[in-house]
Write a structure and sequence with these properties.
It is a single chain. This protein has 2 domains: 3-163, Thermophilic metalloprotease (M29) (Thermophilic metalloprotease-like), CATH 3.40.1830; 191-363, no CATH class. 32% of the residues lie in helices and 28% in strands. It is built from 12 helices and 19 strands. The strands form 4 sheets. An 8-stranded antiparallel β-sheet has the order 13-12-9-6-5-17-18-19, with helices on one face. The protein has a 5-stranded antiparallel β-sheet with strand order 7-8-14-15-16, with helices on one face. It has a 4-stranded parallel β-sheet with strand order 2-1-3-4, with helices on both faces. Helix 2 links the parallel strand 1 (24-30) and strand 2. Helix 1 packs across helix 2 (34-46), helix 5 runs parallel beside helix 7 and helix 6 (107-115) runs parallel beside helix 11. The longest helix is centred in the middle third of the chain and has 19 residues, at 171-189. It is globular. The N and C termini lie far apart (44 Å).
């Protein structure tokens, strides 16, 4: 086993999820990540946890989306609902054999299947916000993900483990330091109201009054590196162009532009993938409302790899997510959609209550 896999397992169990004796940990993944699953399983057992593994067979979701009836797309398995309601921690390990397997699926069917998971997502978010459920998402490097990032598998493994600081002697200490840096920014933003984002790709204004910025230093995602909040729902006005492609269900949506009025997207445009963009924005009542404003703080991630686990953390970018917001940030927006989109901030600035907070890709306060 790659020693970095063992180190990742140790960090996930003992830092990210902090598994305590008697806690129930659910692991959601597929067979491609078996090496990491075994390592996590061992660490969780050593920590005194009870581990339940749910490993999908590759290709089943594609079969359902292509051939299932409306009733089958609407069906919600009681097993993930039970886990969301009863488990103490849930770890999702992404591992891809084909990142484009759903490219030819009707986007309306994808949107319908997404709606069926609304209750699951709501329970997860509410229990996490209440401190009752620990959730973490990570990735196991595979050939498919390496190809998507235009790398060899060896290069991609170095990228993934380097982004998690697993090539360092004490990654946990470094993630705690990142958490302290984020805390200083969050403290400065506390109690602020008006946010204006201006630049070559964006002209937006919104309110964060009464909302809380949250830090991300290896607990909810691994790797990590962002601060984020949920803006006041009806406060967002203006325009933004996302300079990186947004990927959903294996399909790239390129050159997305969104126009907001009083918190809702009133017009959308994409150079490629207009059909899936419009279909997903029509998922439910909350899917045209902004659920997240995030600022990437991980300057160790230096390239776009077409996976938002890494890309939204890129230093020098912001990301907006349409749909479900974060209850712990104060969000009122409910949706089964949470779709992150990435914007380069190289020639842009963020002004908060009249003071320049961020300029040309970096915090300046």
């Amino acid at each position: 086993m790659d020693p970095r896999v063992e180190k990742l397992a140790q960090v996930l169990v003992n830092y990210s999820m902090d598994i305590q004796p008697g806690e129930v940990l659910g692991i959601n993944t597929n067979c491609l990540a078996s090496e990491l699953v075994r390592a996590v399983y061992k660490e969780a057992v050593l920590a005194g946890g009870h581990v339940v593994v749910s490993a999908d067979i590759l290709g089943l979701n594609e079969i359902l989306l292509k051939h299932g009836s409306d009733a089958q797309l609407d069906f919600v398995s009681p097993i993930p609902l039970l886990a969301a309601k009863e488990f103490d921690a849930i770890l999702s390990i992404m591992a891809f054999d084909n990142t484009r397997s759903l490219s030819n699926v009707d986007p309306a069917r994808q949107s319908r299947a997404r709606r069926s998971m609304a209750e699951f997502g709501k329970i997860m978010m509410e229990r996490r916000a209440a401190g009752e459920l620990k959730v973490c998402i990570t990735l196991y490097p595979t050939y498919a993900s390496a190809q998507e990032a235009d790398m060899s598998l060896t290069e991609y493994e170095d990228f993934v483990y380097g982004a998690g600081l697993l090539d360092q002697a004490d990654p946990v200490a470094l993630w705690k330091e990142e958490g302290e840096r984020q805390r200083r920014l969050i403290d400065w933003l506390a109690g602020k109201d008006q946010v204006m984002i201006k630049g070559s790709n964006v002209d937006l204004e919104m309110s964060i009054s009464g909302r809380t910025f949250l830090g991300a230093s290896g607990k909810i995602n691994f790797p990590d590196g962002e601060i984020f909040t949920s803006p006041v729902e009806d406060s967002v006005n203006g325009w933004i162009r996302f300079s990186y492609p947004a990927i959903y269900g294996g399909r790239e949506v390129e050159d997305i532009e969104l126009w907001f009025e009083n918190g809702r997207v009133v017009k959308e445009k994409a150079a490629k993938g207009q059909d899936i963009l419009t279909a997903l924005l029509g998922t439910d009542e909350g899917s045209r409302t902004l659920g997240e404003l995030g600022i990437g703080t991980n300057y160790g991630i230096q390239r776009f790899v077409k996976n938002m686990l890494f890309d939204e953390k890129l230093g020098g970018t912001i990301h907006l997510a349409l749909g479900r917001g974060f209850p712990e940030a104060g969000s009122q927006n409910q949706s089964s959609l949470h779709w992150d989109m990435l914007c380069d901030m190289a020639q842009s600035e963020i002004v908060v209550d009249g003071k320049v907070f961020y300029k040309d890709g970096k915090v300046v306060i």
